[in-house]
């Protein structure tokens, strides 16, 4: 089972992206302490995202005709891996580059492609995803936000919540009901692009347990949308969202969320206790797990590069990857706590605390652990 | 490579059904099985063509070792394959007897079948009698090679255990429906699938660099396969219930071997410590360590 997942090599021309990208990243993160870099995809820096766009590191898989690099999934893997491993602040362009642009390319009209994709590739159009609602989490088909037909467009009413980046973004691609009721489940759902500066849109920050406010609740009160706000087919929203989630779940971001902490601890360990056998065993074990997960993520990337939509395989890697990401702060914390008389630097301590607090979200965002395992079970031929 | 792998799968199905595994474990005659494998020519899969072998690279021959795991072949077939390859390179002759890599304690319930042991280094291998336990300095250099074989066996057995567990869950009815429809079991089977894939890719890392494997690749492979083996065996038994722990049901042949192989030739902790020492020797960020080529 899953025999199509095999070791895959990154083409040399994609490996070559690392050096120029590292130079750009180094300028940005030079003065950033580890506890800020640990935020990585919660770290918002619109200037850095525009610089990445200008240097050609965004829209890597988008056609040249739409302002993209016209490259493949491996080029994107390399760039994402470098950004995350360094803890670069990528939140501004993250969602637009990862899933909004591919979604618009695949399902959008020519006019929508021309309007949004080149701007995304320049790092100038920032997107968020409107999926969750107060009464609609894992049971996404139960969304109640409605877009009703009016002359020349749609009228939008309802509420989204837990929307990452909504405070800073230009646009939201929202999953909304365009016909029927939530009893109709997957039927009657559509995706619309909402300009978050339009009249009737209200965005309020939500502070999380780390003290950050990266997500928000967004209210729609008689928001008028043009006809061309609809992406893809009316009523086809569920299939489109499923395809979009495959992009979201398949990247290397599902193995690197705790790597800034891992590196900070490694430096501490090799400086303070370089011959501590128990600690070295912990370091070696985490390193080995990361090496296997990276190959699994590359194997999924190879499926993407072949034009497949590896939904089940991506779920499998995400579930295993987030387990690793969540184990890192536990193992690092236990190691440091095993030496209560040894001082821990403030930067390492803050990085540990942040990663410990952020870790529960790893297996929530982009599909909970239990939902992913349900997808895998179906892929195995159960139920 | 498929043209070499399919016939080997059929050969093992014919020669090594569970009844033969049980008989050999109980002290029965292993010679007929061994002779069948000798006659098949597969023991020379890794021997260079100029020395009369098939000249496969280690990663090309790895699926054969996986099949040995899948069929729980209770003879050192994979060990003999790599031993012959090393001996051929060194210009040393060998006989048709089984050869085991001598790298330390066995964790199998019954003593391993081997007429001879291979000791020394990949470049300078030596055959010694099975009774002579070489000193540790003569065993350690071959341990990475033995570890990648065990990882392949774990991957092969793990894939089989996953198939058996899914089939059983779809077949066994309780509370009026197949137990595979229960979410609690579905979640466990999903984890089992993850671990089976992880074991297979970990094992593939071990053989990607050829013969002999780089110690780092071997460590990653055996660490990953050993961790997965314990989870795979545990979940499979949870799915199968009481029938799974009965002697007559074949699952136990696989799960007992999974545990033996995960402990043989260095367990997860042993290889984790090796990797930790390597990381301490050349401090680097995790990604730079991942990108650096492994040294043989």
UniProtKB/TrEMBL annotation, chain A:
Gene Ontology molecular-function annotations: acyl-CoA dehydrogenase activity; flavin adenine dinucleotide binding
Location of the Acyl-CoA dehydrogenase/oxidase N-terminal domain: 12-124
UniProt cross-references to InterPro entries, sorted A to Z: Acyl-CoA_DH_CS (IPR006089), Acyl-CoA_Oxase/DH_mid-dom (IPR006091), Acyl-CoA_Oxase/DH_mid-dom_sf (IPR046373), AcylCoA_DH/ox_N (IPR013786), AcylCoA_DH/ox_N_sf (IPR037069), AcylCoA_DH/oxidase_NM_dom_sf (IPR009100), Mycobact_Acyl-CoA_DH (IPR052161)
Known cofactor(s): FAD
Key word Iron present: no
Swiss-Prot/TrEMBL keywords: FAD, Flavoprotein, Oxidoreductase
Ranges where the Acyl-CoA oxidase/dehydrogenase middle domain occurs: 128-223
Pfam families associated with the record: Acyl-CoA_dh_M, Acyl-CoA_dh_N
Gene3D superfamilies noted in UniProt: Acyl-CoA dehydrogenase/oxidase, N-terminal domain, Butyryl-CoA Dehydrogenase, subunit A, domain 2, Butyryl-CoA Dehydrogenase, subunit A, domain 3
Gene Ontology, cellular component aspect: plasma membrane
Keyword Oxidoreductase: yes
PANTHER family in the record: ACYL-COA DEHYDROGENASE (PTHR43292), ACYL-COA DEHYDROGENASE FADE34 (PTHR43292:SF4)
Protein's name in the database: Acyl-CoA dehydrogenase family protein
Organism field: Sphingomonas liriopis
TrEMBL record, chain B:
Domain of life: Bacteria
Domain Acyl-CoA dehydrogenase/oxidase C-terminal: 151-266
Matching InterPro entries: AcylCo_DH-like_C (IPR036250), AcylCo_DH/oxidase_C (IPR009075), AcylCoA_DH/ox_N_sf (IPR037069), AcylCoA_DH/oxidase_NM_dom_sf (IPR009100)
Molecular function in Gene Ontology: acyl-CoA dehydrogenase activity; flavin adenine dinucleotide binding
Pfam families: Acyl-CoA_dh_1
Keywords, ordered alphabetically: FAD, Flavoprotein, Oxidoreductase
Cofactor(s) needed by this chain: FAD
Family, per entry: Belongs to the acyl-CoA dehydrogenase family.
Descriptive protein name: Acyl-CoA dehydrogenase family protein
Protein species of origin: Sphingomonas liriopis
Organism lineage string: Bacteria, Pseudomonadati, Pseudomonadota, Alphaproteobacteria, Sphingomonadales
């Amino acid at each position: 089972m899953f025999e199509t997942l095999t070791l895959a090599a990154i083409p040399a021309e994609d490996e070559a992206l690392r050096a120029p990208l590292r130079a750009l990243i180094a300028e940005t993160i030079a003065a950033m302490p580890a506890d800020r870099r640990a935020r990585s995809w919660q770290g918002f820096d619109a200037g850095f995202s525009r610089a990445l766009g200008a240097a050609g590191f965004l829209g890597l898989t988008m056609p040249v005709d739409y302002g993209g690099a016209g490259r493949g999934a491996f080029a994107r893997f390399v760039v994402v891996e470098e950004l995350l491993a360094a803890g670069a602040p990528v939140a501004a362009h993250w969602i637009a580059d990862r899933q909004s642009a591919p979604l618009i390319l695949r399902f959008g009209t020519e006019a929508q492609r021309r309007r949004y994709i080149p701007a995304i590739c320049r790092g100038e159009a920032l997107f968020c995803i409107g999926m969750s609602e107060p009464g609609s989490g894992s049971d996404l088909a139960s969304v109640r936000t409605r877009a009703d037909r009016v002359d020349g467009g749609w009228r939008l009413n309802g509420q989204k919540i837990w929307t990452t980046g909504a405070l800073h973004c230009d646009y939201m691609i929202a999953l909304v009901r365009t016909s029927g009721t939530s009893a109709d489940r997957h039927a009657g759902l559509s995706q619309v692009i909402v300009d978050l500066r339009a009249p009737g849109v209200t965005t309020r920050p939500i502070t999380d347990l780390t003290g950050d406010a990266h997500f928000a609740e967004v209210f729609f009160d008689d928001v008028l949308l043009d006809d061309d706000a609809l992406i893809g087919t009316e009523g086809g929203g569920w299939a489109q969202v499923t395809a979009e989630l495959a992009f979201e779940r398949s990247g290397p971001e599902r193995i690197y969320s705790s790597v800034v902490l891992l590196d900070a601890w490694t430096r501490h360990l090799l400086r303070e206790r370089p011959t501590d056998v128990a600690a070295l065993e912990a370091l070696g074990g985490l390193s080995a797990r990361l090496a296997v997960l990276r190959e699994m993520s590359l194997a999924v990337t190879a499926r993407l590069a072949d034009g497949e939509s590896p939904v089940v395989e991506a779920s499998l890697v995400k579930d295993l990857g987030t387990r690793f990401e969540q184990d890192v702060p536990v193992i690092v914390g236990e190691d440091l706590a095993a030496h209560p008389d040894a001082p821990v630097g403030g930067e390492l301590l803050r990085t540990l605390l942040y990663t410990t607090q952020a870790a529960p979200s790893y297996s929530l965002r982009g599909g909970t652990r239990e939902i992913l395992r349900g997808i895998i079970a179906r892929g195995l031929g159960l139920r | 490579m498929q043209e070499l792998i399919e016939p080997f799968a059929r050969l093992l199905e014919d020669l090594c059904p569970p009844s033969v595994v049980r008989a050999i474990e109980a002290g029965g005659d292993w010679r007929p099985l061994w002779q069948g494998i000798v006659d098949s020519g597969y023991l020379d899969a890794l021997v260079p063509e100029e020395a009369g072998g098939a000249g496969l690279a280690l990663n090309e021959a790895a699926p054969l070792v996986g099949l040995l795991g899948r069929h729980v072949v209770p003879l050192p077939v994979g060990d003999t394959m790599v031993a012959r390859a090393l001996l051929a390179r060194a210009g040393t002759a060998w006989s048709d007897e089984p050869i085991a890599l001598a790298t330390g304690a066995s964790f199998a319930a019954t003593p391993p079948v081997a007429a001879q042991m291979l000791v020394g280094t990949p470049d300078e291998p030596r055959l010694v009698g099975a009774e002579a336990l070489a000193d540790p300095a003569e065993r350690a250099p071959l341990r990475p090679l033995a570890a990648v074989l065990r990882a392949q066996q774990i991957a092969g057995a793990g894939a089989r255990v996953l198939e058996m567990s899914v089939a059983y869950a779809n077949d066994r009815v309780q509370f009026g429906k197949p137990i595979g429809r229960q979410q609690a079991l579905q979640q466990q089977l999903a984890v089992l699938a993850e671990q089976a894939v992880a074991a297979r890719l970990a094992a593939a890392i071990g053989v990607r660099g050829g013969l002999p494997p780089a110690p780092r690749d071997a460590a990653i492979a055996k660490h990953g396969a050993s961790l997965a083996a314990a989870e795979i065996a545990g979940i499979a038994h949870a799915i199968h219930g009481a029938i799974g722990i009965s002697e007559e049901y074949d699952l136990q042949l696989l799960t007992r071997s999974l545990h033996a192989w995960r402990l043989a030739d260095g367990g997860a902790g042993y290889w984790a410590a090796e990797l930790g020492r390597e990381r301490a020797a050349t401090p680097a960020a995790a990604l730079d360590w991942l990108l650096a080529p492994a040294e043989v």
